[in-house]
Amino acid sequence: MQPSLKHYADYFSIGIYLNICAYSEIINWVDKLIAEIDHPEDWMIELSTSAYKHPLDVVHLLDSIPGEQNLEISLRLIIAKLGRIYPLPSPENHHFAKPVHSQFLRSLYHLIFDADSIADEIRTAIYQIDIDLDYVEQGYGDWSVIEQDYEKLLATSFDYQQWL
Fold first, then answer.
1. Which of 21, 94, 117, 148 has the highest count of CB atoms within 10 angstroms of its CB?
2. CB 50, CB 58: distance < 8 Å
3. Half-sphere exposure of 84 (CA within 13 A, CB side)
């Protein structure tokens, strides 16, 4: 199933929250939408010109896009993007070795903490990363555990790579 405009809007909102989506991506996405139709919606024009807006203003514009939300689909898009920008979380290649990367992974956990509509495979993968991060950061394990957890997380959304 191809994600809807609302799914992409939520994907971008989450991406802004996690700091993995840039305004330029949002603008490129909406500019392509505008080019495909005769009469663009107001939210399309607003987003197209949002390069210098505050992040909260952009998130509010994304939230205004009509449609039914589905956190799982939007989250799978986020995880698919992670597979592109951080294919391996190994400290040897400087991915996820810094505190900001641990913070990012923790933010994923907080994002799904109260969400009921997430598949168990995604929830379990994110929970496991969070638990293992605690152990690794306290010196009770090594990054190979996080690498294995991360690979399992990426596998949950492999099919969504085609929609990015």
1. 21
2. yes
3. 15
